[in-house]
Amino acid sequence: MVVDPGMKSLFWSSLATGTEQHTAQFMAAQLERVIAEIHRETRALVVGVLTDNAPNMASAWELLENKLPVFGGDIFKKILFMKKIKEDALSIVHFVREHHALLDQFRHLQRTQIPPDQARHALVIPVATRWYTAHACLRSVLHNRAILEDLFQSSRHAHLMERYNAPATVRSKLLFVKELIGSDFFWQNLAFAVAMVVPVIEALRELESDGVPTMSRNTRRRVRAEFYGFVNERWKFVHTNAISIAYLLDPNTDPDGFIDSDEADSISQACAFAVRTGMLDRLEITRAQLNRWLYAFADEKRSYTEEDKEKNAGAFPRHWWRSHAKQANAKIGYKALNLLASYVFSIPTSSASSERAWSIFDYIHTKKRNRLSTTKVEMLAFVYINSAAKTNVKLDLARLQLYPEAEEHDIEVNNHEDTLVM
């Protein structure tokens, strides 16, 4: 785990040691390998190595410190800055907790000044064998800054502080604690120290958790990445030129729904589509004019009021454009955009109609009719598909597939002389 106060923590690598003995030489070699990898790949310098306090690791620290310019072992002991911050914070914690009247007033201020829905942090004394409790100690002092400043600096607690003016040893501790609490430099260093250790604490909390295996974090990331891949591929499939242009020309859509450069790309695609279809020559306009009108319409939609949106609600885009283009006071360019809309919105949104036609061929050319010629199959499909367009009969294709000889269907269709009974 690579940690630095100026960046988010980074999981670098892990190692399954297998049957290897965890000797000091082996552990030092592995740590040295990782340090070299980090420097080689990122050009960053590793200045400290933090591990547990097992005897083999203590020996590994010494080997590393003799070979590389790094701090090893208990970071709070090796780095003078961290050591001083820890000692100062612990002085405040000990002084408050060792005097019952002071501790009781501290807790009273917490209850009265901190809202019930917010957490109240007790002052923590670190445990020597659990180095992360040192972080808990620093954090508890930092979170209670306002309470400590009120307790030691407010005049309303002067009578309480007078209790600790004697003996001299207690008075010297009180003066030292007051000096720390009144120092902005101390609080700045304390906040920096807490921020520097937080990423390591979070990583250890995950690694030592019984309820959530660390493997599951990687699994969730992989699952999210897989789903993102599916969505991205589907988006590429549906995000076609026709869909983009249709979204632009639909009076019910909001241009602000475009992502990144989609709006400009859609307008460019619409102009290219107009060139390919010969629309520009047919209307005797230039590409620049169409480009200007498309941008103007997108800007017009952004200015729609709620009343305008209600008027357009539910309108089919082709009908809307046909109606507005025929108006006497139609805006310049509406005629061209109407023709473009008639082209674009004539494109089916799916292949359902084609698939339906293929199914009809399958209905007709069954095993019982496998001797039909290709021409006859095409003729029957033509009559079957187009008969509904010529009459008012609604054909139930699914029912017809299951019961092609149904009498009800024959009777219904026989009422129309122009319809061929199949």
What do you see in this structure?
It is a single chain. The protein is an all-alpha fold and 422 residues long. The protein has 22 helices and two strands. The chain folds into four domains: 1-73; 80-207, no CATH class; 241-344, no CATH class; 352-414. The chain is 65% helix and 1% strand. The chain has a two-stranded parallel ribbon with strand order 1-2. Helix 4 crosses helix 9 (168-181). It is elongated and about 110 Å long. One of its GO terms (molecular function) is zinc ion binding. InterPro entries: HATC_C_dom, RNaseH-like_sf, ZnF_BED_domain_contain. Residues 317-383 form the HAT C-terminal dimerisation domain.
Total number of strands: 2
Q: Biggest sheet, open or closed, and with what strands and sense?
A: 2 strands, parallel
Measured by DSSP, the beta-strand proportion falls in: under 5%
Q: Which sequence of strands runs across the widest sheet?
A: 1-2
CA-atom Rg in angstroms: 39 Å
In helices, the fraction of residues equals 55-70%
Total helices: the number is: 22
**Helix-strand pattern, N to C?**
HEHEHHHHHHHHHHHHHHHHHHHH
- Contiguous runs where pLDDT drops below 50 for at least 5 residues: 401-422
Q: Could you give the distance between the termini?
A: 74 Å
Shape: elongated
Determine the structural class based on helices, strands and strand pairing. Answer: mainly alpha
- The number of distinct structural domains comes to 4
Q: If you average the pLDDT, what whole number results?
A: 78
